[in-house]
Amino acid sequence: MLSYLSAALPQFTSPAARLLALQCALRADTDGHVRLAAGLLRGMRLHGRTELWEELEHANWLRRAAGRHHVEAQLLDTVLVPQQLDSRARARAAHWALRPAPLAAPAGPPAVALVALALAAQTAGDAGSTDLEVLARLCGHSPTQTVELLDRLVASNALTGWRHDRQSDEVFWWLPLPGGTADRP
User: Fold this and answer.
1) Which CATH code fits 110-174?
2) Considering the entire predicted model, what is its pTM?
3) Which pLDDT score, from 0 to 100, does residue 56 have?
4) Which of 37, 65, 110, 113 has the fewest CB atoms inside 10 Å of its own CB, making it the most exposed?
5) In CATH terms, are 2-98 and 110-174 the same topology?
6) Taking a C-beta distance cutoff of 8 angstroms, is the pair 113, 62 a contact?
7) Is the pLDDT of residue 181 over 60?
8) Domain locations in the chain as residue ranges
C-alpha cells in the first residue's frame, strides 16, 4: 500500500497526509467509502488537522464530509478499489500500520512514524534493508531527510543502528534485540 500511495500521491504530500491516506485506503469498503472515528484520528494525533484532508482533496485522491464524531470520505482513485483485500485482512493491516511490529515508532512527528512503518514493512527478524531512493520515495522525503529520520530512530532506541552502502545505495538497519541492545556491524 505504501508503494501504491507513493505513486498515487504527489511527491510533496506531507507524511501526516500519507499516514491518513494509508488508513483511508486500508479502511475503505469495496465502494471506496471510508469512515474514520474521531477517537482513531486523536490516537493518530491527526484529529482536527483539516489541512491534511485538504491536501488529499487537492491531489484529487478523496472527497470528504465531516461528521460530529467521525470523518467520512469517498476515495476517488478507481485503481485502488478493485484491488482491495478482504475486509478482515484490511482491518489487520490498518491496525498493524498504527503500531508496526517489530519496529515500535517513538511518539513524535508523523515523518518519523512513516519511516518506522516503511522500515517495519521491510524488516525480517531483527534487521532489514532496502534502497535509499525507494525508502525516500515511499515516505515522500528526500534521501537527506530520510537519513536524518533514521538517525532520529536510532536516538529514540527504535533502531540499534543503520548503515548506508553508498556503492549500492542500499540502507541496512538493525532492531534492538529482546532484553537489550547489542553491537551491530
Assistant:
1) 1.10.10.10
2) 0.83
3) 94
4) 65
5) yes
6) no
7) no
8) 2-98, 110-174
What is the signed CA dihedral for 84, 112, 123, 155, rounded to 10 degrees?
-170
Please give the grid coordinates belonging to residue 79.
485503481
Ordered alpha helix ranges (H), 61-163: 87-98, 110-121, 132-139, 143-155
**Beta-strand relationship, 161-165 and 70-75:** unpaired
Distances in Å between the alpha carbon of 176 and those of 26, 103, 146, 179, 183? 29, 9, 20, 8, 9
- Alpha carbon 120 to its chain centroid, in Å, reads 10
The string of pLDDT tens digits covering residues 77-121 is: 766 654 555 667 777 888 878 777 777 777 778 889 899 989 998
Asked if 164 and 171 touch (Cβ cutoff 8 Å), the reply is yes
Residue 102 exposed, middle or buried by CB count within 10 Å (0-12, 13-18, 19+): middle
Q: Give the CATH number of domain 2-98.
A: 1.10.10
Grid coordinates representing 36?
474514520
The rounded percent of the chain whose pLDDT value lies above 70 is 89
**HSE value, Cβ hemisphere, 13 Å, CA-based, for 53:** 17
